[in-house]
Amino acid sequence: DFVVKDKGAFEVALKRLAPGDAIVLKNGTWQDFEVGFFAEGREGKPVTLRAETPGKVILSGRSNLRLAGNYLVVSGLVFKNGHTPTPEVISFRRDAKQVANHSRVTEVVIDTFNNPDRDASDYWVALYGKHSRFDHNYLAGKRNLGVTMAVRLEGKDSQENHHRIDHNYFGPRPILGSNGGETLRVGTSTYCLTDSHTLIEENYFDRCNGEVEIISIKSGRNIVRNNVFFESRGTLTLRHGNGNLVEGNVFFGNGVENTGGIRVINRDQTVRNNYLEGLTGTRFGSGFAIMNGRVDAPLNRYSQVVNAHIHNNSFIDVDHIQFGAGKDAERNAPPADSRMEDNLVLHRTGTKNVVFFDDMGGIRFAGNIVQGVDAALPAGFERAAPGLTRNSAGLLMPQDEVLAQRGAPASLRPIAKAA
Known about the structure:
By secondary structure, the chain is mostly beta strands. The protein contains 1 helix and 44 strands.
């Protein structure tokens, strides 16, 4: 361990690092510290940058962190009372040619670390490279323009990356009032036909209200599973990219205005075993929306939904479930070759919450149970009264043994905020 107490000592220690070594920052406030953590560890012997005591090393003023190399670990740092002087607070690269691979950032806090110019754009975290992990971190209070966290696919060295983003607390983000306020984005429209293979699991999204997209998936072959969305004004959006899996997520709207769920666009998407309750959002921010699109759409527009499989989801007191959402002169292609099966659609106060904006003959409906839905429904929706009871995990589940096979599984357990 190289224990350092100032920036000069950090730079000296950086030149001496070997696999298995660590730089330990002394407790205290490090003002205007642009940390360049560039080193080479190896599997089983990472190079570590850590706080002397987790949470007691404060990076304030004009501070940031860049890491590049292989098998690096950063832990225990706190960013607050300042903002980044560069486009990113934490970046998993040094420059366009040097990225971080097989690296980990854990138990780090970014707390209201905002540029005073609300229209100045920055990212709090930018993941580049491959096979890295971002876990058990706390990010809350972003107010200025820019995505809270982004997985960047620029360059072959950052594509098919197999990153893991898990057990993070994404705390309140106030309404931005424009595009560019996503909490988490994976890819961009430019690279949307590229596979990312990013795993997003066991995170807690608490009142993430920046814009209509909380998570914006803009790449292929990602997995979004077992996350909780609490009173967040927006949706988990499969905006671009194909072959993504959304499963086991829990949405608690609690009747808060404009709370949303899942929005489906593009090809080969699977949405299964999710639980959505008390969501009030409409249109593109609905509790559930499967979009109309365009055949052969440009990369930055809305592609037709093809081969979507939506099954075993529970929509409880969800005010707006929309099929063919966004239909207009451009988005004139309804979903095709898709299936929606064994879902529960229950509204205990009764509402015309299910709306069809176009011919949904391209979706095969089967085994879906509805209650309290006043709308006319096609074949494949069965009316029943399953009798709901809230289980030990806080989820409403049918008591009828047959109907219990529909909707989200009884084994679903939403992650607690404390975890």
